[in-house]
TrEMBL record, chain A:
It comes from Pontibacter burrus. SUPFAM superfamilies: MetI-like (SSF161098). The keyword Cell membrane applies. PANTHER family: PHOSPHATE TRANSPORT SYSTEM PERMEASE PROTEIN PSTA, PHOSPHATE TRANSPORT SYSTEM PERMEASE PROTEIN PSTA-RELATED. The lineage of its organism: Bacteria, Pseudomonadati, Bacteroidota, Cytophagia, Cytophagales. GO terms for molecular function: phosphate transmembrane transporter activity. It comes from the Bacteria. This is Phosphate transport system permease protein PstA. The chain crosses the membrane at residues 17-41, 62-91, 111-128, 135-155, 182-202, 209-228, 248-275. It is found in: Cell membrane.
TrEMBL record, chain B:
PANTHER family: ABC TRANSPORTER I FAMILY MEMBER 17 (PTHR43423). It is found in: Cell inner membrane. CDD domains: ABC_PstB_phosphate_transporter. It comes from the Bacteria. It comes from Pontibacter burrus. Residues 8-249 form the ABC transporter domain. This is Phosphate ABC transporter ATP-binding protein.
UniProtKB/TrEMBL annotation, chain C:
It comes from Pontibacter burrus. It is found in: Cell membrane. Residues 67-279 form the ABC transmembrane type-1 domain. One of its GO terms (molecular function) is phosphate transmembrane transporter activity. This is Phosphate transport system permease protein.
Amino acid sequence: MTNSELNRLKDKAFQGFGIFCTLIGLVVLAIFLLNILIDGLGRIDWNFLNNLPSRRAERAGIYTAWIGTLWVLVLSSLIAFPLGISAGIYLEEYGKKNRLASFLEVNISNLAGVPSIIYGLLGLEIFARMMALGGSLLAGSLTLALLVLPIIIVTTRESIKAVPRSIRDASYALGASKWQTTWYQVLPASFGGILTGVILALSRAVGEAAPLIVIGALAYVPFAPSSPMDEFTVLPIQIFNWISRPQAAFATNAAAAIIILLFITFMLNGIAVYLRNKWQKKVKW
Amino acid sequence: MSKKNYKLEAKSLNAYYGNFHALKDINIAMEEKAVTAFIGPSGCGKSTFLRTLNRMNDYIDGFRVEGEILLDNRDIYGKDVRVDELRKEVGMVFQKPNPFPKTIFENVVYGLRIQGIKDKRVLAETAETSLRQTALWDEVKDKLDKSALALSGGQQQRLCIARALAISPSVILMDEPTSALDPISTAKIEELIYELKKDYTIVIVTHNMQQAGRVSDQTAFFYMGELVEFSKTKIMFTSPKHERTQNYITGRFG
Amino acid sequence: MRVQEKIIEGLLWLSAVITILVTVGIIWVLLSESLTFFEEVSIVDFLTDTQWTPLFADKHFGILPLVAGTMLTTAIAIAVALPIGLTIAIYLNTYAPPAFRATIKPMLEILATIPTVVYGFFALTVVTPFLQSFIPNLAGFNSLSAGMVMGIMIIPMISSLSEDAISAVPKSLREGAYGMGATKFQTAFGVLVPAASSGILVSIILAISRAVGETMLVAIAAGQQPRLTANPLVPIETITTYIVQVSLGDVPHGSLEYRTIFAAGLTLFVFTFTLNNISFWIRKKYQEKYD
């Protein structure tokens, strides 16, 4: 075999390996999803969604868990969105390229890399203990709000950056102030991108269990929460709890709850992707 | 004080981008209700100078200005001057049409809205007047609530001019307003400039010698950040004083 | 008007500065509780003792077993994710038709969006039984299965960041190699990968940082037995799992056991903080080189 034949063979071999690697992750994903569906789909019915937790697997439901998840999503959104979007606006439109701005940038990129469980320790000490919120919805939502803040800030900045200079120029030239320009022109024009980031942040928050366990969210909550000060559980914690039990019937419950959790996660991500594509098509400068 | 009352004057104006000396000791006086054209090769400072006239360069990091620019004998870089007030007096039209991604109507009344004017009648009247001034009214009166981005390039540029007129400035700055347009749209804008100079002082930056010749009363030739020559357009184009001006006008460089 | 502008700017500034408070808060919480911890437990013991048994009668506070557990799962995850992720990056960049790349990239991203409890379930109920069928002495909880599944989870991190880095290699280099008759394979490994090495390195470091901090997956599938071992077949405990374990129990606040989770958290934070800053530093340096 000549050298060049050998080279071509190597090339072909690597190409085959490349296809193999690309597909292996997806094949594993498919096996996994199929497995979960087979295990859990039969378990999902109206009662499963509406039953309180129970020590008997076949009577246990995820009512408290999904209500808790919904509460946490709404509360942490209310906290994180205004903060994150404002911070993004400041860094992109106001923060001159000074030392504070570059420090903020390093800091935010660092925060994005802090493991979620560390946010749990922060929440435990500051919100649960010092602010005496205990293992309440509010403590949990504040913790998750801080966790997703970097995601919102980064996507807000990127969306704002994409608004062309000429739009700002036009607004300034008509006598608009910085804030007027930001409010009337920059934000509406970057709305789609910001919304996408916000939804991605939500999909991240919906799957988090570790930080909530650390602040003291419980696996067993007999009643659905009805105010921000109530104790709570969320879907991922409920799933974790069921996985930890030896009986096979609880594994079936876990699979069923996972289907619901994945449904929510995929739906949020789907909406985000849809919005991103829609906005990219619509806004042509 | 100058003998004559000029609308816009620059006195010993120097401008810098960081260490780069972009405008070197510019002295110029522009008459009221006349069209002044700035010409010169790319990077000569003509656009920079235009943008100092309404302080659009304020937002550029490291940009600074020395000397004075007088609008109606008042230094626009003075401490008591508010930039938003200045820009209501000095409107601007850009190189590429840049309508906001909003309706035609909202584009025209944007300047009024940010001044806090909410009276629907005032807004509607101003919109109509401004659109009539730019000869756009008949073309768009039935689709005021349609997106401005659906208009043609020439219409968009006239909309941008209408938008600038709506806040009743006395000076209009135009930064190569026809460079992105086809010849027919260009002709319409040039006619418009001719009409507008009855009421407004116009300063236009252009790359197009013929355009400068057609629309302007006076012309300033910039080169490497310096104002080389400034005179009546007719004189500049027939008997320029400097060889460099002559070369540029006749197309030998630039 | 002017006052209003200033107030708004002030509020926006405050929102941005809150992010600094979060960092300060994290460091303060970890340090203050850990300092109290180190008043009772010597830092030498913490760093050198080979046993971690704070919840037993015979208490030992050596962090090494937890660090070892964390390293082991991380190493297995990277051993899976690095070859696969890098191959995907090269394949998608130089071999794959654009339409294929456009479909496959978002599909791979799905892997990164799945909640980690779900991966834990997968590792425990599918992968471990599957591996047990040909490794009979594999324990029900083990770092092998948890690490492998974590590897799959972080594939998209390595593949997409590395692909970005490879795409950023100037076209002229690539064309130069093709022009000399190099195959795609030779171009990829002889030119592209070396030229994109710093970007690829950043992707690996970030993936390590992610794996070190991963919690639910290992808490579910890798066990809760702190053990100083490199054996991937037996139950171990990671730093993160320990924190979860204590949080689930009834450890009274203010006790020494309670403080152990902050000492463990501080250890974890030091690791991820260092890794993130190295990657940030490499990225800055790399940008300066190419811009």
